[in-house]
Amino acid sequence: MEYMFPSHRWLCKDEADGKVEVEIYPSEVLEIEKLINYEVTVVTGDVRAGGTNANVFCQIYGDEGKTEVLALKSRSNNFERGTTEIFKIEAHDVGKIYKMRIYHDGKGIGDGWFLETVDVKRLTMAMVQIEVKKEDTKKDKKKDKKKKKKEEEEEVEIVEELREVVETFTFPCNRWLARDEEDGEIVVELLTEDNEDLEVNSYEVHVFTGTMWGAGTDANVYINIYGEVGDTGERRLRKSNNLNKFEKGQEDIFNITAVDLGVLKKLRIRHDNSQASAGWFLDRVEIVDNKDDTTYFFPCKRWLAIDEDDGQLARELVPVDEAFMRKGDDDEEDSEATLGLEQKAMSTTYTVRIKTGEKKYAGTDANVFMILYGTKDDTGIINLKASKTHKNKFERGMIDEFTVESVDMGPLKKLRIGHDNCGGGSAGWFLDWVEIDAPSLGQKLRFPCGRWLDKGEDDGAIVRDLFPNPLQTELYTPFVPYEIKIFTSDVFAAGTDADVFIVLYGRDAVCTQQKSLCVNKRERMMYFERGAEDMFIVELEDVGDVIEKIRIGHDNRGVNPGWHLDRVEIRRLLRKGKGSETVIFPCECWLAKSEDDGETVRELVPSDIITEKLSRDGSLKVTEVEVEDALETHTYKVSVMTGDVYGAGTDANVFLTIYGDLGDTGERKLSKSETNSNKFERGSVDKFTIEAVDLGQIFKIKIRHDNSMVSADWYLDQVEVLDVDTEEVFLFLCERWLSRKREDRRIERVFYVKGYEGVREGLDSKKKNSALTVKSVDSNMNKKNKKKKEEEIELPIIPYHITICTGLERDASTTSRAYVIIIGANHTQTERLWLDLPDGRKGYEAGSLESFESHGWDVGEIKKVELGHDGATPESCWLVDELSVAVPTKGVKYIFACKCWLAKDRGDGLTARVFNVLDAEAVSISQKVIYEVTVVTGDVQNAGTDTQVFMSVFGANGSTEEMLLQKNEDRFERGQEDTFNMEIDDIAPLRKMRLRIDGSGSRPDWFLDKVIMRNLTTEEVSVFTYEEWLSRTRGPKRTMICEMAAVVDEEVMVELTTYIIQVKTSDVAGAGTDANVWLIVFGENGDTGTLALKECNKSNKFERKQVDTFRFSDILSLGDLSKVRVWHDNTGISPGWHLEYIDVKDEIMDKTFRFPCDRWLAKNDDDGQIMRELPCANNDYLDLNEKTKYEICVTTGDTAEAETKENAWIVLEGRKGRSKEFVMENSSKKKRFLRGNVDRFEFSSKNVGDIAGISLGHTPKDGKKVKGEAYWFVEEVIITERELGNKYIFSCNAAIPLSPKRDDFLTFECTKTVESFASKARSLVPVKYEIIVITGDEKGAGTDANVFITVYGSNGDSGRRQLRQRFRNLFEREQTDRFVLEMLDMGDLQKVRVEHDNSGLSPGWLLDRVEVTNTANGVTTIFLCGKWLDTKRADGQISRVLYPK
């Protein structure tokens, strides 16, 4: 374990709290490798000059692995003649020890050393059997004492106990480790004394250097041979049979003595890059095991050089079968067998990316080295010399890339990275992180560091061990190796230095990424010369068993980039058994702008497949098959139609990709138009020919331009693709701008074929999907819960709305990725919900307020919320001010005042914290239901739009606010059905919908076909049909707003009617007005929307004592009306208006509703309001003190035990009183309370007001005695009050015991009340509300903008009211402003919306809170805000919705 104790405080008498002693607690406990104690005793022989001054090292091998190399050193002068030294060492537990290696580095004078013996003591904790006396239990009985004594002596128990155990292993040596004694070796491997199975063996190592120019080296070469039983350790190849070792075409033979390794598995060979021109081409290594005389072949055929191949100085080689080695010898030509593919498949290639920090002097010129540690082995020292990305490595803020190969290391567990402090004063290095990507394992690990490797910074270390951060681990499908051979033709100027890339396609359009074969300019110069055969081994996605086609091309850069390609051969290993298959793709043509058809990209299909298999007798069997059913090359004629609108044409370069179910064409530039010399002009059609391998059914295209030249904006009307071979036509209706200035400013778009049914993905959604797949596996983060999860049922997925407020201190911002985990009762929890910022922004700025919508499992009642981020370096600190989590489907929101650091080196050092809901501020928000909304756009020319679309839905139980429907890149386009989920207030059953467009955007007109809404909980479907334009300029209505009636099961919920509205102005001096007047009528089915009172029977409207009649036809009937809202805009001379009443007549219902007013709507009369809400006068006649009827519906549980044959009784507890007891009879003729049944009863009673609770009893018929226990299980009770139709729902789910006593009953509280329309309309009486607005106390908190408020309650909303007072400067810093507004009784207040119009000099406003008091009943509701309404701060919003505390 590693414990971190953060402190960050003064220990000083005169600083902070003056304490000089402090208790600190660990912030994080990391599990690190477990080490145990070893004691190594070394006895130096009593021989003349037996001692040494060299540095001595040892390595211990056991059944469970090996330790790292351990340096044996202490403070005293060690290893003197005849001494015995003891070293205490902590190292990895290797289990039972079988051998050790001990050596010295030959430094110092008289380095020869005579070693007598080594003892290793291994200290571990183990279960040991111990004898313990048994204690007797029968102490109190005085009988048989004598017996007892005897027993005590005999009874001994054996128990196991955990004790520290010492095991000793002795290794006799008795030999010199000296260059000038015996065999000259300074390395020796020792076996334990009592060892029987193993013996020391010698290996003959033959090293063959290649024959090419510059193949030899004078550097020091080191080798390490691995077998089934351990390895030899790294040995320098010193004594060869040749004086000058490792020269071109030479064979060098070395002897290595080691404990027998068993069957050899691999070897690692490296050189230290010393001396001039150290690059070395190693052909192969052969090792002869002298004990049983077997030869192992390790082919290499690669450079070990920083300026050749992949720049590695070390290679790991694996042995191959002799048959593969012999394969080359049979042919006449000198064709060597290439086994790079086999070796690649057995080894793992790691791409290492190293990021130097963004700090002053962060870079280094020192030599950087690295060791990767897996669970089985490590890579040894890797010198990071050849960066693929930069010549000058490890400079500030740069990322350098290296390749490392290793065989069978096991999963990576840590890496060690350091430097040698060379390079003068600038050796210090600030390392940010190391990222290691292993495509063949399908994992990418991130090792954070964020510290200096500098003798003069931090803790002075220049070597650090780094561990992977599990939160940043990415998993993906593992890649497989392909050997790609490219044959350039032997034609004049056939070669190229351009960047050649390749893509492989399997069946069903599975393809790899586009892979460049050369990494840098040096390689591009080297490869693809005339007549050359170049081999590349690349790791790419697995495309399945069949390669259907490949695409190969180049970027046409460099001098004479034209290239004549003869053929491509791709070899890969067979899935089963030993062997490989080679697929041949003939080309034999130019990829050049100046030759043939000018194409630089070709698609090739296979002609032959050659399979090599190793048969049982050890020979190679080669079969060659012609490919019969290869895909044919098709010609596609593409017609591109540019729209006929102003500025539609473009001169930019246009690129097209066509996707079919068999594959895609890759991106092709549309260069030569067959119809116009000037392409893509307004209203023109351009035709292009594309050759590609058969794509099958084409379903989408991707088209983009590069925004070059003047006025690059392009309006694309449609694209037509004709497959010449099958004569099929695929039509893509586009009708969109590709422009950096218009619509959503994109210059790349995806279009689907007309009538496409499948799932559509935008350009962005691809990223999201891939991210989702990565996140769902989240490497090992969710392992702990995985086991539980499997047993559980899948929980439903619900939306969570999360907002995060970042603090304002220095370093408060972070660029890490943040996440939350929501935890419910009994350990249910969501996955990590990653909070990735939209628009690809990186990081949370100081003082920002970010909002996210995530989807996660429904964990029931939330208990805790974990917030964290994936930053693991000390730099990635983050100060979180406030976190809020809202669950719309539950109607709650929790606000956590965090005010804490999430950082390794701030506060208490945690990067993740769990917040308990009990500490949060819980706020009730309006509960939402999730609907699946499908919007169908008509198939009419230019039907699509990019305008803002707003929707409001009206139901029997209220209405929603206006909601913006997100365009999301490609919704609301011609002929499309767009389906998405929306959270909508629980107002079902739906009655009608209003859609409004605001006419913004480049294409403001929209032809709406219909909207379908499906309630995901009840599966009820409502259809709203329009089939007309929403537009200022098109269609018969020329309207931008429409209302549609809901159709449920082919029944229309509301019908059209005509409203005749009569407005009577009072007979008061100055009563008339010339201002513009508007009206909204409210009823059972919502409201009419804003009606302008313009067209009238009188020319001069609203004059004193005049009645004006307005007629509105084709309006969806609202049913019974409840109120009207009337207002004017205060224009004209003396705009004050005294209104007597308004009459509204519904022609279909033939009913008139009267709305009396008799008040001024004037700024300088009465209370100064120019907006009034008038309740309907028709609703007053009901007298509620009389008797009324109650209908009671009882649902009995659906199990056999639930039903009863006896009677039941109920008492209603109301706000005005308590009813008498109603007996619910159960007669033999009419059986009640059967399982799963719903029984209805009706009772008359005095009106008890709102029902708050009920008592339920269960009694035997005619007072019989009760035998045993009997129950009646009640699921729910619904009570309807008949006069007004209010409903009270009680969820009981309880068993009621049968009892003759009257005082045995259960009580239940009301779970839900559904207030009827009549009841709501009755409660609409004018009430004065006092609104207090308190502005915050921060610099610049006040505003001079105009402020508006809308209050929402259970009876509807107030409309948007301006908060104004005369002659007073409102909303200044730390000021309290009071306003009185008269509104119709809102019922329970649910939320308020506060907004300002951003006018004035500094309109930003910090609103602390709003308090609303209903002066009629004295109830005050407090709405906390504490946020800025400022376009430049927080989230830039100037409108906030506040919920009651």
TrEMBL record:
SMART domains reported in the protein's UniProt record: LH2 (SM00308)
PROSITE patterns: PLAT
Keywords attached to this entry: Coiled coil
Domain named PLAT: residues: 36-152, 201-318, 348-467, 480-605, 634-752, 798-916, 929-1044, 1057-1175, 1188-1310, 1327-1443
Database matches in Pfam families: PLAT
Coiled coil (residue ranges): 132-162
InterPro entries per the UniProt record, alphabetical: Inner_ear_hair_cell_LOXHD, PLAT/LH2_dom, PLAT/LH2_dom_sf
Protein origin, superkingdom: Eukaryota
SUPFAM superfamilies: Lipase/lipooxygenase domain (PLAT/LH2 domain) (SSF49723)
Protein name: LOW QUALITY PROTEIN: lipoxygenase homology domain-containing protein 1
Species this chain originates from: Lates calcarifer (Barramundi)
Lineage of source species: Eukaryota, Metazoa, Chordata, Craniata, Vertebrata
